[in-house]
Amino acid sequence: QLRLQIGLHPIDPSILVLVNNDEPRAHWHLLKLLLLLIANHLLSAEAAQHTKESYVVYMGSPPSGGGGVKLAEMMRAAHLEMLASIVPQEQRWLTHSYHHAFEGFAAELTEEEALALSAHERVVSVFRDPVLLLHTTRSWDFLDMQSGFRPDGGAPQASGDVIIGVIDTGIWPESPSFNDDGMGDVPSRWRGLCMQGPSFKKSSCNKKLIGARYYGDQLGLVAPNASLARVALSTGSPRDDVGHGTHCASTAAGAIVEGANYYGLAWGAAKGGAPAARVASYKVCTEDENGCSGSALLKAIDDAVSDGVDVISISIGKTATDTVPDLLTDPVALGAFHAHQRGVLVVCSAGNDGPDPSTVVNSAPWILTVAASTIDRAFHSSIVLGNRKVFKGAAINFSNQSLDGERYPLVFGAQAATRRAPASEASNCYPGSLRKRKVAGKILVCIGTDSRITRRIKMLVAEDSGARGLVLIDHKAMEAPIDTASFPFSQVGTDAGAQILRYINSTKNPTAAILPTKDVKLFKPAPVVASFSARGPAALTEAILKPDLMAPGVSILAAMPPMNMEDVPAGKKPSSFSIKSGTSMACPHVAGAGAFLKSAHPRWTPSIIRSALMTTGVCLDQSKPKKIVCIFEQNGRPWSWLHAATARNNLGLPVASSSGAVATVHDMGAGEIIPLRALNPGLVFDTTTRDYLDFLCYQGYKDKVIRKVSGDA
């Protein structure tokens, strides 16, 4: 009897084909190849079972009573004891211990060890530590105008007692948006830290930026005998070297900065939604934007609740393709539930995978999920053809070309294709598809029919080919222009693009120039649902409206570390402000609005704040029902209407999506936020923790699991 074994895995002889000496040698080589493939597969599977990965062990609500360092040490000891029952001592590593808002820990485990821990009676769920992604001043003025009130018309001013926790890439403390001039003492209930690190001292915090923590891979693994004090001294820094966290924090609660601008664009006063609020920064993402650790995000939420924040802003999440099996293995949903349970409003971005349906993320019903919209400001870069026709395109560029200056030859990408490149690739500016000698010194025209090649990639291809500029013909995402610094770039729709191509084909020597960007204020229509903004319904909770509402998230000016050289125009220094788009930018608008309402109504719960923001939209007249349930205020009196209404834009027409169709609840939820109207909503709905536990029951979770989650076990 033939018996073969590879590693620990026996091979069934029936899969082998015996070969005699008369068969061709090719057959024997095929058999050897088959054996090698089988061996590789089995050895890989065996290695995977013994490879250590980061896992989160979630144990529900923490035990009641006690607090402080002593309790933290006791809980950590208990978590290590639980690990000891499964993991050998020399391989026992604890990365995070959760014990404030909820209980659990993160540790390096093999697949077998994780499976063993999941069977423990105190454990609710065990899941791999996911990698989450970032969902990357005029906006507040626009929201004030939409409200129908003057910004200086006697509206209540936010107090300095509200604290917003921003979980992101860290913070740049020197930004003028975090100046504490005129601010009173830090609220006595604040229990947070200002952690030190390279280029970040305790003195970097002030009465505005009152706390700063950092987590993630910077901390490394914590050995069993390491104390909490040693963990705090691990390498790392709260400083933001990416800019995303600084931008979001200043959007939510930045101080008023007069004369803010981005190289002359978007000039005005920059401010956050709650400029008097305090900011606490929690850094969970790496400097190179490779992602954000789910276990670190859970620890940040746990700390933020204990520190005493009122609102948490999270512009982080999975993509629509990274499906989450259930709510109890989603770190954002888990942390947000326990924060809400303790009276902290959690606001999250909806994701940037729109406009396809069912792309919304961060969709747990206790999360305030935010879609992105445009504001009444646009950035236009005109294209001037040799026949003097002018087309307005969308772009942020600081071109040195001018209306009366030199014109450059125009060439369509398909006309400059290499011998081996299909015309379809060259027309889309596909990398490697263009002949440089046919493009150099000319303005290149490309189309956007291949979604794999982003606008920035097309720009880099054109720049690398020696082009003097790029005209992109693509109607998608025109409302969110990209920043190309000094490189002349402009994006036009299909109608304008067709005229430009006709000009190229009908003219012997077609020429053009791309002019530098100008900002257009009071642009109409606005708001419009951004094309990238993720749409509902949520795949996990289809019966719950998601996103909840919409806020400005396109071309938002906010603070930025003055160190990024990538998009700096020639001869300029890095700017202290930047213009960015994404539901990441919409999220802190709502966090700031929530803090504003909390300061005016300190007793309001997270559910009441969300309800007030969702039920105070600008709606159609009652006699003209449309498609959206809306409850709002008219003439100072609460007015409920359960048929439906559609939010209006600044033309008095129904808000549209990026396609031009009337926006639906799956595009914008309850509509665009109007914080000033939400101060007096008239009618609110206060959803309780009990309601959310009933929801979990309806979703099929067992009573024993729900009791652990709630703390009633």
From TrEMBL:
<keyword id="KW-0720">Serine protease</keyword>
<feature type="signal peptide">
    <location>
        <begin position="1"/>
        <end position="47"/>
    </location>
</feature>
<dbReference type="InterPro" id="IPR034197">
    <property type="entry name" value="Peptidases_S8_3"/>
</dbReference>
<dbReference type="Pfam" id="PF02225">
    <property type="entry name" value="PA"/>
</dbReference>
<dbReference type="GO" id="GO:0006508">
    <property type="term" value="P:proteolysis"/>
</dbReference>
<feature type="active site" description="Charge relay system">
    <location>
        <position position="584"/>
    </location>
</feature>
<keyword id="KW-0378">Hydrolase</keyword>
<dbReference type="InterPro" id="IPR000209">
    <property type="entry name" value="Peptidase_S8/S53_dom"/>
</dbReference>
<dbReference type="Pfam" id="PF00082">
    <property type="entry name" value="Peptidase_S8"/>
</dbReference>
<feature type="domain" description="Inhibitor I9">
    <location>
        <begin position="54"/>
        <end position="134"/>
    </location>
</feature>
<dbReference type="InterPro" id="IPR022398">
    <property type="entry name" value="Peptidase_S8_His-AS"/>
</dbReference>
<keyword id="KW-0645">Protease</keyword>
<dbReference type="InterPro" id="IPR037045">
    <property type="entry name" value="S8pro/Inhibitor_I9_sf"/>
</dbReference>
<dbReference type="InterPro" id="IPR015500">
    <property type="entry name" value="Peptidase_S8_subtilisin-rel"/>
</dbReference>
<dbReference type="GO" id="GO:0004252">
    <property type="term" value="F:serine-type endopeptidase activity"/>
</dbReference>
<comment type="similarity">
    <text>Belongs to the peptidase S8 family.</text>
</comment>
<protein>
    <recommendedName>
        <fullName>Peptidase S8/S53 domain-containing protein</fullName>
    </recommendedName>
</protein>
<dbReference type="Pfam" id="PF05922">
    <property type="entry name" value="Inhibitor_I9"/>
</dbReference>
<feature type="active site" description="Charge relay system">
    <location>
        <position position="168"/>
    </location>
</feature>
<feature type="domain" description="Peptidase S8/S53">
    <location>
        <begin position="161"/>
        <end position="617"/>
    </location>
</feature>
<keyword id="KW-0732">Signal</keyword>
<dbReference type="InterPro" id="IPR003137">
    <property type="entry name" value="PA_domain"/>
</dbReference>
<dbReference type="InterPro" id="IPR023828">
    <property type="entry name" value="Peptidase_S8_Ser-AS"/>
</dbReference>
<dbReference type="InterPro" id="IPR036852">
    <property type="entry name" value="Peptidase_S8/S53_dom_sf"/>
</dbReference>
<dbReference type="InterPro" id="IPR010259">
    <property type="entry name" value="S8pro/Inhibitor_I9"/>
</dbReference>
<feature type="domain" description="PA">
    <location>
        <begin position="408"/>
        <end position="499"/>
    </location>
</feature>
<feature type="active site" description="Charge relay system">
    <location>
        <position position="244"/>
    </location>
</feature>
<dbReference type="InterPro" id="IPR045051">
    <property type="entry name" value="SBT"/>
</dbReference>
